[in-house]
Description:
16 helices; elongated
Amino acid sequence: MPIDIYSFPVTWLANHPILDRVSLVAESAGLLTEYHHGDPERRERASDLRDDWAAWVQEIRDHGVLEPLKVVKNPDHEGRYLVIDGRHRLQAARDAGKKEVPCVIVHEGDIHAHMEGSVIARRHWTKSMLAYFALLLHPEVAVENRHGGDRKAIKSQKMRLDLTTREELAERYRVSPRLMDDAIWIYRQLDEHPDLRPRIEPSLWAGVPLMRLRLGIEGATATLDQPRRPASPDSASWGKYVNGLRTRLVLWESWTEEQRIRFAGDWRRLVTDLPDDAREVMRAALQADSPESEDDGPIVIDPFHAGDDPTPVNHDNDATAAHGAQGEPETGLCNLYETGGSGIPSPEPTPFATGTERHLSETPQVLAAPSQVSSLASVPVGTPVPDTLTCDRCGRHGFTVSGLARHQALCAPSTSRPVSA
């Protein structure tokens, strides 16, 4: 019997709701990079997935979609269709700039059979993926006679499942009944805690085994109903949090710009909530290790030009540096509390403030870092900053705000000359 093949615009097509819960290859590569970048094996897998996807998009760009997509009529939108087999081809065609793709319309009664057959034939799918997808097509196996989902309950028959159905499903998808039990338990937990689904399901499609996901869910659900207890100041476990942050920041160079900006925002919110003395400790540490240019000048970063290379500028004895090349005041402010020490600015940079006072006038100026103005006297809001300043330690005159900050970071208070007017 001949099969009718239609050429449908890609705008007419959407993924079937069941397939919409399965991450695409390109999405899985991004998840592996973001959540498992410390694992060399998963990092390599992510690289392979990206390369395969790019090659496939190029092939479709050159030759078009050769195998028709299988679709059914969309019951919610007349004249539109749902893809039940070929969603990767559809996305690759969109990425390749194709306007239409070949499609075959499938009868309603064959939907699950087509999706099941295409999934079982996929060689790149893991056993964990197959077991969980089986439950997406046959949720009745997971929700039937629910009395909990742990293995002990299954073994002791406290939870009654239709064992024939479960075993039949495991045999059909070529997975072990034990793995199917894990899939059933995870499916039930995500059904009870839908807020966990956006985190767990994408990790599964990225290649994380069911057992590892189960351990993560057990830990997450165990603390959902427990009140958060503030950490003890004498706790010896605080170091693991610092080490965890250090481990992630070691991979800073491999982060995308978007990841760096997101981290900068999170870091700013974190520092804002810290006690004042904790911020002072962090500020002192950043000042001690702050990078310097070859000409021994502070690094100035314009927060309105994220991504540009930092420009070393030496402001010592430069009475006009704070006013820019054309005599107009600069509008940027490099603030480690705003950038998280990353050089990536926040969208709304603000002057460093302490209580109701701040170290600058209301018009922000370009500084090297707020840590370098710690020794300046606080100036009430609205007080104009003079064009030249004097060091109250050695009496040297003619500094800009940033130049004085830089000078006082190095100036030893060995003399006590009176400050000149």
